[in-house]
């Protein structure tokens, strides 16, 4: 009888140690964070949830450390991703398409529709409470880089409103993305997409 009790106690101790080991192993937290390098095309209200998540530590709660940089143009974002300086690039899909069309074997995957619409606004030099798209006829607009999403969006909207982007106004695409606001503030153009 004594042998059975000792054996039972040893079994209980071994089972308890095994269960405790499994529980501790599963509850063990790995304090090392996986770093994800994100390059955004510009600071934008469309990325506000990301800024809130970073500021409030939500990424750290799931084991991620986000290093955020701003590329100031889709081409610069894509260059950083292709060069391995960033893991993820937030920009229009056109930059990835251009890399693919160049025949590169290592091209980026596109996560579509992270934002619902293009984030550009048309800003006027003058206050016009009764704006009509036809007001752009004969004017100069800074639309961004030709082939970029803001440029393609303004062309689409102009055509949809019966305006020929090639003949009815001037689309000045000579100004780099990150300099558009400064050029407009400095006196270039009647309108700018920002």
**Helix/sheet category:** alpha/beta
CATH architecture of the largest domain: 3-Layer(aba) Sandwich
Strand order of the largest sheet: 4-7-5-6
Average pLDDT for all residues: 83
The proportion of residues in beta strands is 5-15%
H/E element order: HEHHEHEHEEHEHE
Helix-residue proportion: 25-40%
Number of domains: 2
Instruction: Report the uncertain regions.
Output: 14-24
Shape: elongated
CATH topology of the largest domain: D-Maltodextrin-Binding Protein, domain 2
**In CATH's first tier, which class of the largest domain applies?**
Alpha Beta
Number of helices: 7
The description of the largest β-sheet is: 4 strands, mixed
What is the assigned CATH homologous superfamily of the largest domain?
A: Periplasmic binding protein-like II
Oligomer: single chain
Return Rg in Å: 28 Å
The end-to-end span amounts to 86 Å
According to DSSP, the number of beta strands is: 7
């Amino acid at each position: 009888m004594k042998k059975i009790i000792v054996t039972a106690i040893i079994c209980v101790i071994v089972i308890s140690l095994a269960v405790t080991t499994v529980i501790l192993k599963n509850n063990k937290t790995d304090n090392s964070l996986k770093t994800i390098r994100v390059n955004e095309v510009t600071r934008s209200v469309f990325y506000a949830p990301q800024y809130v998540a970073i500021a409030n530590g939500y990424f750290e709660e799931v084991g991620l450390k986000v290093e955020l940089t701003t590329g100031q143009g889709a081409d610069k974002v894509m260059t950083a991703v292709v060069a391995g300086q960033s893991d993820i690039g937030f920009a229009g899909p056109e930059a990835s398409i251009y890399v693919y069309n160049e025949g590169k074997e290592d091209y980026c995957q596109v996560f579509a529709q992270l934002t619902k619409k293009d984030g550009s606004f048309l800003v006027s030099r003058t206050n016009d409470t009764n704006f009509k798209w036809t007001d752009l006829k004969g004017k100069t607009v800074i639309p961004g880089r030709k082939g970029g999403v803001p440029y393609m969006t303004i062309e689409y909207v102009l055509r949809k409103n019966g305006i020929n982007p090639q003949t009815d106004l001037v689309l000045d695409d000579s100004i780099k993305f990150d300099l558009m606001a400064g050029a407009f503030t400095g006196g270039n153009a009647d309108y700018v997409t920002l």
